[in-house]
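Contributing new complexes? Match this layout with zinc ion.
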Amino acid sequence: MPRPPIDVPENGMIDEPGLRVGLSEGLAGARIILAGRYLCGSAALNPGAYQLRAEGGSVVLLDARAAVCARAQRLLLEPADAAGCAFTLPENSIGRNFHWQRTASQTFRGALTACCFEPGVLTLINHIGCEAYLEAVICSEMSPRSSAEFLKAHCVISRSWVLAQLQHRSHPRAAPDAAWTDAASHVHFDVCNDDHCQRYHGIGAVNAAARSALAATRGEVLVGDGGVCDARFSKCCGGITERFSTCWQDVDYSYLQPRPDCAPGTAEFIPPLSAEAGARRFIAARPAVFCNVGDRHILETVLPGFDFETSDFFRWQVTIAQDELRGIIARKSGCDFGDILRLEPLARGASGRIRALRIVGSKRTETVSKELAVRRMLSASHLYSSAFVVDTPGAGPVPNSFILRGAGWGHGVGLCQIGAAAMAHAGHDYRSILAHYFQGARLERLY
Ligand SMILES: [Zn+2]
Ligand SMILES: [Zn+2]
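Output block (do not edit by hand):
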């Protein structure tokens, strides 16, 4: 499927790009239900249930009576009628490697490629236009009851983010290194359908509010530093947004600079959070910022149901017993640290997120770098954020437990979803929301 490169045009516009979205990797087989007629090579497939299986180096498509319909290293299932056809994966896994992991039935539009890149392993890739992809993303990432301006802001950043991934695939030398983005880790497709990239959980929840937000912003992206912005977002910054380099590669962008999540001139005194004492004071406080939302109604309009399992994320606390922490760190690192004696933050980003954490054990001492690695190392799944301070109650060289007091949910870079929802609730339009979180970026219509 040919794609135009995603350069910011001097004048004129590009065609709407097509995307290759990875739906499933690493399984030996998958059930699939076709609603509408599909074409697979010379075979015409009637609506109904089918089975895809990796056998040796080939993909085999079987019908409900287990008769072979097609067999090849790569099978393309194309809808006979793009608007009317859809396919369902009844047992697809979502939230992979996160605490909300589960399987769900997901329905997609567009074409499907089933590939066998290594013997016995099936990879499923959805081919879909950018706007149809975004329609499902907007509904997967947040509640369709979100306010219109919040949805519009999210349309622009989700579009910018995914087009920035294509931009760096078509111009790899523009990237500082091969692992410039998370999506760069995908070899066979542009983005995956899960939290690792952006949630794309199918058309189940698509609704009129998302459609009209997309139509109002069609083709609009944020542009800065000579290209489409790598417009990051997370659930809740905790009070200050974070730098790119705290979380990913050691580069920073002019439009992703840390800033207090409040209207200009209204910030209460915020101590430098890179110093331990400043971080401690900040995390103990509840500053009046956009994402300090007490109104459950606003949260309900932002978070889809399954995120609501965790609602106290602006300031949070976790207590981990010595034995438990010792076990978790051993499992995550593959090393026996012995008793965990101290957790020492060595470096923090602008939002207080720990960039480097030294784990001092009775048998071993190591330093963990980058925000997500820190979050994952200390929890069976992962902590809400790496913006936390550590206390060890009681005396003695070996603590019985560790109390982590933290702020925010997610990496904190770019748009803060809870803060943006609160801004929209307070009457800001999407342009002013984007200008707040991506200072210096321009809004442009690419197609
Ligand atoms: Zn991904
Ligand atoms: Zn925030």
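Reviewers usually confirm one structural detail per submission. For this one: Residues 182-183, 186, 191-192, 196-197 surround zinc ion (ligand 1) (CB under 6 Å).
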